[in-house]
Amino acid sequence: MGILDFLFKKGDKNSSIAKERLQFVLTFDRLSINPALQEKIRDEIIQVIDKYMEIDKEAASVFVESSESNVSHLIVNIPLKRKR
Amino acid sequence: MGKCIVVTSGKGGVGKTTTSANLGGGLASLGKSVLLADVDIGLRNLDIIMGLEKRIVYDVMDVMEGRCKIQQAIVRDKRLSTLYLLAASQIHDKSDLAELIDRFGEIIKGLKKEFDYVILDSPAGIEQGFMAASSFADEAIVVTTPEVTAVRDADRVIGLLEAKGIKDHYLILNRYRYSMVKSGNMLDVEDVLHILGIELLGIVPEDPEIITFANKGELVVTSDSTAAGKAFQRISRRLNGEKVEFPSFEEDKGLFNKIKSFFRARLGE
Question: Where does ATP bind (chain B) (predicted)?
Fold first, then answer.
């Protein structure tokens, strides 16, 4: 989703925005980590994979998400191209 | 042996003191003996909410520091004969805190033998006052409003209660505006419960009567004609172990719908 799509997402209820924002901050509150640390983890994971595989860095994503049962997961999604 | 319940929230101004007072009043109306203890040392408010501010001679600090007996510091409510208040001190004495907390624990232990319920009105925040209050509680009630700030702080408090081993904790969602929820402009109860992962004890609708009753020093729970009063009555019964249904959203009817249902009732529909 592009930035423009994100900014002008249609039909989003005000309360849904509140819910999404809360879930985001609480994920970090509960783990006592901040978005900057998440960035750092992301960069280092990509570096490690990059050592062995050729990867699509642009499309790579690493983020923390809370599941339905309120358990936090680190989701790593790195498209691989070929072995180095 | 009675039960000690701490009422807490993290964020200030969400209605902790009002909730404590009205749950105390609600339980007392059910015939239970209740002691309400204000733990907000330095910023006491339970006395004024209950209309007992002129009757306070001694406070919890006087008891802890041996200036009076516990019986002298406990004040009986004006209307409800089984409701009692132990006021907080207005003076913040910075003597040995650890020792004071120990003594406070002893007082609570003694009170639990005398009363069915000991309700502690915790101060806002997660500092010593909150820690002291939650250290001696068997159960906890977390009060929040459907606002992002209050919910975030409630989550923090729930985490701390769990760390303290208080497994029985319930949520009261205060200042709920059914109309705003309906129009999608306020977090709904399901959202809040899902985010916080906590059991619901009850919803208190936004009600201006809360302010008018507080102005008079009366408890809204004693009124059968107010929305908030009825909500606190239901919550008190649940707290006392009764199964009480959660009313549907339809309860908050606008004037138009009220007129409509009045005529429907007349027509026997």
Answer: 11-18
Known binding residue B230? Answer is no
In angstroms, the Cα distances linking B44 to A4, A8, B6, B77, B127 are 50, 47, 16, 17, 16
Q: How far is CA B222 from CA A80, B230, B236, B239, B256, in A?
A: 67, 9, 12, 17, 28
Asked if A26 lies within 8 A of B155 by C-beta distance, the reply is yes
pTM above threshold 0.90: no
Nearest CA in chain A to B181: A15
Kindly report the nearest CA distance between residue B176 and chain A, in angstroms. Answer: 13
Residue whose pair of structure tokens reads 């004693």 in the numeric block: B222
List the single residue in A16, A29, A69 with the smallest CB-CB distance to B152: A29
What interhelical angle do B148-163 and B189-196 show, nearest 10?
A: 40
Domains belonging to chain B, first-starting first, are: 3-267 (3.40.50.300)
Helices then strands, each counted (H, E), chain B: 12, 8
Give the domain ranges of chain A.
34-84
